[in-house]
């Protein structure tokens, strides 16, 4: 039973992908994606509750001869994947119907969309359930390949350019991570650990050769950091995320970045024992502040609202990296909560930005004005989503940012937190000004309608994000257990 | 196989591996670059097979042959087909001229030696002492990727990096576990196919595969 629960999160979306391949995308199969995502979420919740029964801290179980393994951290990441996938898949039918009506897509492209999105979700589930560094790498590289054609979905010049840059930069980045994995394997082989299983590597980490591990960890952080959109390897992100179809952007920004960061969390557990906590901490603080600085600098003069959202993702991944660098229990709980909150908020914004883009045909900020009067139903979620991402209460990002800041001051990283806060103030000012212009600025224009199929995920996402900000509810113990597994220091 | 012969054969394979990598910097015809990449795949295969014979490990020899089939057979074949389809045979003026590129390769080799000292120190066998060579090819591949303008040259640069990582894996330990190796090969093959389709689309959209055309997206 337990092993079935482990296989299902990968198997359900994969099966849905096969159905799309056979039947194509029609009125009925359009909702299959949402169904599969709901199935994934159900499995994730079931895994998390069994985790509770067993008590935190140790693995739930293994499946497929130990290839898959689940613990509180995997279960939590699966919940994030399931939630964001559900929002994105609920909005997909309406989005694709509008694309079809506008002549941007055809039946073949829609079939491919169904197959690729489901395979992409399956690959992410595989990544967080993989028990070895090697399989994790394979799954993350597979996400790059599967999303390449989704980024280039529209086949315009810009979309093709974005897809090319995306595949080349991410593949090169992740190739560096592969070299890191090879070196970890070398260090492990030397002390008699013949597999790449993390549990085993973490157990023997204190005997791994520090000289080799230093190079390996640097490569792994750089490599997976590329995929997580952290500076200085972030160049592909604004292009890819602004060109992909809105539901895919929501998946990529909302979860894929976090799944790549999850790999860094797993590496950090091994690295902290092998090299002491200082090494990864220094690396992560550098990339975190660099990401925040890049985001702040490029958000100031941003003229395109989809790219604005992409840079905001770089900012939030920077915050997540900063929290991971701090590394105590409070910080890691906040980091995981931040990952979930960002996933919800960013999906809402990308989905509403997709509606805007379809209605106006332009993603320029100055093309949008007076949203509040023209499209009150769309302006509401968009405005609330922006407030959520800027970290205002009652949304959960406020709580998690506060948690990261408090943990940072307690751990003696006050200077880094102070620098981050200054950069975040710049970001709040920039995004606030641009948001105000889109929502309130300018004269009247024609009304923009919001399809009901999109309204539901928008409101659900915002409600969940606000509810998490008020109370963690049953998630609290799961987050604590997951933080322990991610190597939280007291 | 005696010790001395093993070391000589290993060094010969590594030398060929390095030489083909450096020659990619020297040639500008795309067809020649694809040839060199195929030859490098052969050198990599030889390297793994020599290791396998020395360790009397049949599985390692078979894995080596599989790696060879992919990197010296299938991937060059796919690239040649793309080249014939596009009909464009020459690299336009690269960002860095050939003489400077070769000098840079020398600097990269020194860098690779400096960086890989800790790796060699851990267990100084003939095989691990060749790791700096693999890392040199990795850096050369990266250099090709950032200084060439044709889509196909960039692809070769990326694949050189990947060859170098595979070589490192086999020189340090007898490769990564088999499941992972299969996954990696599959990912690599798919990545190449994806990039190939994208070059076709690029030609349709831009009328060429000169990546200088990719200038629409920026801040």
UniProtKB/TrEMBL annotation, chain A:
Membrane topology term: Multi-pass membrane protein
One Pfam family recorded for the sequence: Proton_antipo_M
Keywords of the record: Cell membrane, Membrane, Oxidoreductase, Transmembrane, Transmembrane helix
Annotated localization: Cell membrane; Membrane
Predominant subcellular localization, coarse grouping: membrane
Chain ranges of the NADH:quinone oxidoreductase/Mrp antiporter transmembrane domain: 130-423
Signal sequence segment: none
InterPro entries: ComplexI-like_HydComp (IPR052175), NADH_UbQ_OxRdtase (IPR003918), ND/Mrp_TM (IPR001750)
Organism superkingdom: Bacteria
Protein name (Swiss-Prot/TrEMBL): Proton-conducting transporter membrane subunit
Source organism: Nonomuraea helvata
TrEMBL record, chain B:
Alphabetic keyword roster: Cell membrane, Membrane, Transmembrane, Transmembrane helix
Membrane topology classification: Multi-pass membrane protein
Transmembrane region(s): 6-26, 33-54, 60-79, 95-115, 127-146, 155-172, 178-198
Record's subcellular location: Cell membrane
Tagged with keyword Protease: no
Keyword presence, DNA-binding: no
Annotated protein name in UniProt: Hydrogenase-4 component E
Species: Nonomuraea helvata
